[in-house]
Amino acid sequence: MSHTLTHWRWAVWGVGTLVLTACAATAQQAPPAAAETAEVTTTKSTKLKPVRGAAALLRSGPMVGYSEMREVMLWVQTTQPTRAHIEYWEKDKPDERYQTAEVETGEVSGLTAHLLADKVQPGRRYEYALYLNRKPVARPYPLEFQSQELWQWRKDPANFRMAMGSCTYVSEAAYDRPVPYAGDYDIFTSIDQQKPDLMLWLGDNVYLREADWNTRTGIWHRNSHTRALPEMQPLLGHAHNYALWDDHDYGPNDSGYSFAHKQLTLAAFKRFWANPNYEQGGGGITGTFQWNDVQFFLLDDRWLRSANKLPTANASYLGETQLQWLLDALASSTATFKFVAVGGQVLNPARVFENYSNYEQERGRLLNAITAAKIPGVIFLSGDRHHTELTRLERTNGYPLYDLTVSPLTSAPALGAREEGNTGRVAGTLVTQRNFAIVDVSGPLADRHLQIRIHDAKGKLLWEQSIAAKDLR
Questions:
Q1: Residue pair 246/299 in contact by the 8 Å Cβ criterion
Q2: Residue 315: C-alpha distances to residues 129, 284, 469 (Å)
């Protein structure tokens, strides 16, 4: 989706210093889009000073990906073929250390590596260090991750905090539009200052340009260029990052099923993110994960989507197989809150741009099925629109449904939403500047609550809303 343009800038990431620990491991080449198996040892090693030459091998990261009870995935990108591994230890127990398998980055993998920490125990917090060519690489911010807690049948789930947003445009003058489009990169510092446990990227996480989307070279360059944004690095390094895509990280503006190079963009997505699963229900990036008592369903609104300019009664948005997978997964879930995350707005009734309301029959099937099956706790999350709002849909035979749209992060805001007629918009929730969301999940299992807060790029609170689980049954 195209909007009015703003300003841009570019920066170079500096190198910090930190005392870390050196160790060795076995090298292996990772297949594209696959998680490398970690061979881990317990060590007590001598602390060494980080080598500055090793820092020059780092392009972006390290990034923390998915978290489970028994493993956590990490990611890194280097500037040239390099052996990479992670050493990690439980907080306050630095003498008992573990390390991932050593993975050699190469051109086939876009110089990226997925590094699996598979000696973690449930409900623990860890610190970690990155090694390139077996030399420690310092980062000027804490490197931390956590494993999921085994709370079931034992106690109430823990409180946690998540951040979310969409539409991240990072300028590169040679390929940008004539009028600058990006700004407020320090929004990622503001997000990081909120100390979220996880960050959910709601699509348009990169903006493929005309020079990018027809070749593997362009697609991988754009992902590499965006990921290397200096202001983004601390958030990547100690919040768990999960992502879905929308049109701009999938292909051209408004692209769908017929995009010829979607296999290339899917391969890049799998290489640059570290979700636990993909391709559920026939979608490209479709997947799911759980954090405590909350389950997330990450949907693909591109892979099976009919062209916007060819509307028919049976037009596909999610597609039959993905829709059926979603309904089955929702009906099977025991999660308190079930967050259904999709690139475009679901509940906004205005038939504008790429809203799901333009695909009336499929959208009706989804909403009617949720009502008929009496599935509790469903909340939609969306991006795309270059504005933020909370939409509420009242239902005769069920609790009200909500759709939290959060956009943009660094792309240009849009002003048109004021006139488009979203009759379900919750009063006071429309935001037409760069912003992000913080959502706190708290309370005992029998009385869980969501506290939704929207902040501007500098971190100022713009609005907040509370939703109780008991009101979604």
A1: no
A2: 49, 18, 34
Q: Which amino acid is at 439?
A: V
Number of CB atoms found within 10 A of residue 132's CB:
24
Bridge partners for 77 per DSSP: 60, 112
pLDDT tens column, 88-101: 999 999 999 999 99
Of the candidates 342, 354, 335, the one whose C-alpha atom is nearest the C-alpha of residue 406 is 342
Pairing of strands 389-395, 398-405: antiparallel
Residue of 429, 340, 323 whose CA lies nearest to 379 = 340
Closest CA to 38 of 68, 12, 61, 18: 68
With vertex at residue 111, the alpha carbon angle to CA 105 and CA 116, rounded to the nearest 5 degrees, is 55
Q: What is the pLDDT of residues 169-220, one digit of tens each?
A: 999 999 998 888 999 999 999 999 999 999 999 999 999 999 999 999 999 9
Q: At what angle do helices 216-227 and 262-272 cross, to 10 degrees?
A: 30
Answer whether 0.85 is exceeded by the pTM. Answer: yes
DSSP H helical segments within 10-67, as ranges?
52-55
Task: Fill in the amino acid letter for 108.
Answer: V
Sign of the alpha-carbon torsion through 281, 248, 464, 192: positive
Contact call for residues 306 and 255 (beta carbons, < 8 A): no
Angle of CA points 302, 303, 304, to nearest 5°: 95
Q: What is the bridge-based pairing of β-strands 27-29 and 102-104?
A: parallel
